[in-house]
Amino acid sequence: MSQPASFNTNSLAQQLRLPNGSLLRNRLAKASMSEALGTYDNRPTLGLVTLYQRWAASGIGLILTGNVMIDRRALGEPGNVVIEDEADLPILQKWARAATDQGAAIWVQLNHPGKQSPKGLNKRNIAPSAVPFREDMAAFFETPQEASGTEIQDIIERFGRSAAICKKAGFSGIEIHGAHGYLINQFLSPHHNKRTDKWGGSPENRRRFLLAVYAEIRRQVGDDFPVAIKLNSADFQHGGFTEEESLAAIQALVDAGIDLIEISGGTYEAPAMSGALQEQKKASSVAREAYFLDFAEKVRATVQVPLMLTGGFRSAAGMNAALASGAVDVIGLARLMAIDPDAPTALLQGKDSAQQVHTIKTGIKPIDRMGLMEILWYSLQLKRIAKGREPRANESGLLAFVKSLAMSSWGTYRTRRLRARN
Known about the structure:
This protein is of the alpha/beta class. It has 16 helices and 14 strands. Strands 3-4-7-10-11-12-13-14 form an 8-stranded parallel beta barrel, surrounded by 7 helices. Helix 1 (46-56) links the parallel strand 3 and strand 4. It starts with 15 loop residues before the first strand and ends with a helix. The model is unreliable at 1-7 and 274-284 (pLDDT under 50).
């Protein structure tokens, strides 16, 4: 455990002014994680209020919600919250106030899964093109149907409408999920996007969908409301979205007025955020802790937009070093917040958390290769916190997998049954 940083060297406690004038009280952010705490008909619950109150009480500056979907017909997992109308405005307001009443900003991460949805959950999955998953994942994910031009336009409008509802509910901002193999990332990737119309082909055409989503959100929320994006540095997949294309997309977003960019990487098929993959990185990268700091430095050399980096941070010293490098403005914490929801209290004093993130394995090699436990195990910990309990940092990976499989199967069944009644 590192020694506490002095007040002068602990940059984590410094405020950050965003381009639109919004102020974050410090440089720590809770990054998005899969919560699946919505009802089976995809409405927010009081469990989310409890969970976010706990996080906000830690003193953290920014909290990003887990995936919030824009269409009940397009879910990424059972229990996703969907915001497509104002029916749930009262509880959305409680959710927002769980953070803002304690001084934290809370941004809703809006998403559409595209093809990246468990088999049987949705009546049909659409994507830029009908590209199947790799062979060992075909049992879990169906081959999608190619989205029509009308469907693409509907999705763009849904992103904007959902963002406007979030603003009305009192949330502090929006993050567009453009990473990790979901729909926007699928449009960006030449591996998933084989279209020959205006939405595919050249890198400029493949990022047209992303820029249209951003423009529609901005049109509906105005210039003074923070809009950020989570974007892959690369897909780490043969024929996928490259660093050069990511840099070009970032420049286009900056030119359009984006307020913050969160850098990430990988997809379900190539999970770069998986601890198992990161263990293979060279020693110099491990010493710097952050998974994508090298890419952040390339971005910083090109643009001056605030950058958030998530993944790999283990210590207050490592986080401060990243901030001191000038390449990063906000430190994203995800899995650590699931096993130590009070971690920011220590980090803001220059101390390390008492917990350390480690790779979760089931002992079943095909499952462990997919990196699914980096989502499933931590989701179970979030459910415990949402019930007012403490997380179990030593919970068995295999037991968590069995629990998650049972919950997902039941959730898929219940979701389909409820949808059939309506």
